[in-house]
Fold this protein.
Amino acid sequence: MSDRGFWLRVGWRNLGRHRRRSVLTAAALAWGFAAVVVLNGILEGMGSDFVRSSTDLMAGQLRVQNPDYEPERELWDVVGGDEGVPLADLMGRLRDDPDVLGVAPRLYGAGIVASDSTSRGGLLMGVVPEEELRVTHFLEGVVEGALPAEGAQEVLLGQELARQLRTGVGEVVVLVAPSADGSLGNELYTVSGIVRTGIPEVDAAQVILYLDDLQFLLALAPDDVHEVAMALHDPWRAPVVAGRLSASLADLGPDLQVSPWTEFRPEVVEFANLIAGMNWVILVVIFLMAAFGVANTMLMGTFERRREFAVVKALGMRPTRIMAMVVGEALVLGLLAVAAGALISLPLVLLLMHYPIDLTPVAGEQMFMEGLFRFVLRVEHSWDIPVRAAVGLVLTAVLAAVYPAVRAVRVPSAEALAGR
Amino acid sequence: MVLLLAAAGAPASASAQADAEAAREIVRHVDDLLRGESSHGRVTMEVVTERWSRSMGMEMWSLGQDYSLVRVLSPAREAGTATLKVDRDIWNYLPRVDRTIKVPGAGMGGSWMGSHFTYDDLVRESSLVDDYEVGVSFEGERDGEEIWEFTLVPLPEAPVVWGRVELEVRMDDRMPLQARYYDDRGELARTMTFSRFRTMDGRLVPTELSMYPEDKPGERTTLLYEDLEFETGLDASFFSLQRLRDGP
């Protein structure tokens, strides 16, 4: 039997001497553990939902652009620059990456959209709908009609824009936009559908049309796109994948840049970091409270056993052994608490993982940074949370036992034995 | 419409409270020179950008500050495209789709006919008139010409976009030479030059106006007036949506 195992056994026995008190303390610790695991899991779930929704909705998790495109967004700063790149090749190469889930080419412009009765400023977006649907969700918000069809001169309008234009499915609108050659592009289109993305700025201004149709309106060539957006299996791998793709696309020239959402949506990263920070705060606050409970229990335990400590000291036990005895007791208490805490939290975690509690009917949902922030109690499965909580709990118990242990060592033998 | 665009270069009358009565008088002269009560003319607009250059022939009519109409004559592909301004509203007629479209508020910052002027520039002129205080900031010889340089500073409550405008006027014939527009941080935003002074319809006017946007080095929009007549006797009813579509 190893020395460490021996002290654990002694710890276990000592706990048994005041069973009720030990159980209560362990229960407090177990409850702390469960609270940390469930709360952190819920926050992690919210953060992850948010990261996903704010990149999946419209932005994409990875994108290829001409490095000169942002922030001026000049029409001619297309992917690949003046020489251009064959779009089909580029998309094929991006699709071949094992991390990439979908690849969607996009073209942007700004202009005026006019119905028979009135006109509004419009943000024009040229997409290939079937590709876009593999990357983002905003086209799923069609509330009326259908997506624009290829070669049909059709547009999909944001819901609020359509309302302001007093137009609807089947009606004709005019798009007027300064084109890349300096002329004023203007064409007639049929409204194929109305879309509601939930992003107010988008719903009030977005005009979505087939990529080829927008290229024609803006006097651009068929391979000209401003962006190729991608969705990934795991959003958090975006920086790694961006680096790999940058290297593998280097032969296509300098006018092509791959960037991950962590770069072009830094505010989302900050938000995710904020959530991670809150998780630590919860952990520290809860275990700090638990630490005082453990310290109190251990202090009482050592005080009651002053005479015992005095005897073993008088018999020549070394101070480190006495400390090990007390700390070992706390360690056993901590391990018991972890086991109990796991038993409490496991069903809760599993429940919230598979049957999230949707609080949006009471709390509502917030459109925030292009993401939908919803109050849904859903636990995101992640092993580091329970591990972190377990380590935190055991450390708490052990550290809380240090002071009582020191007190135990310092028990003056003669006085304690004399009953003073 | 001469005035429409020229006004961007001839910033305005001075405020009534200005101390320098003479300065105000000269600026007012420059202003009136390019405004006239009404006008009609032909102009070629050259736009040079980093990416492309183009030239458009246009016919223009104006009445006071509130009404103007511009029709594109060439190139053929865009002939018939027209812009009508009435007060603060602007409509475009697009022959290709045969539609008249009012420029919406959100579209007013957009480029007018691919030039470096925005729709806002076209409608903003009238608000400049009473919004600046005029001071003489230089008087004497510069680049071989005797000039005055006026500095126009917006009055406190004035709804203007510029932080300051500097206007150079030649002394001998009171022709404007250059106007420099500074943003509210005091940085030069655009420069307008006036040249090729000709007598048109009995009036000496600059017939070449160029605008150089500071944020796009090497780019410019130039207006070359080929003929101009003033006090044409047109009235407000000329500037109608029907005229916009069908021409004069």
In short: The mean pLDDT of chain B is 85. Chain B has one domain: 2-229.
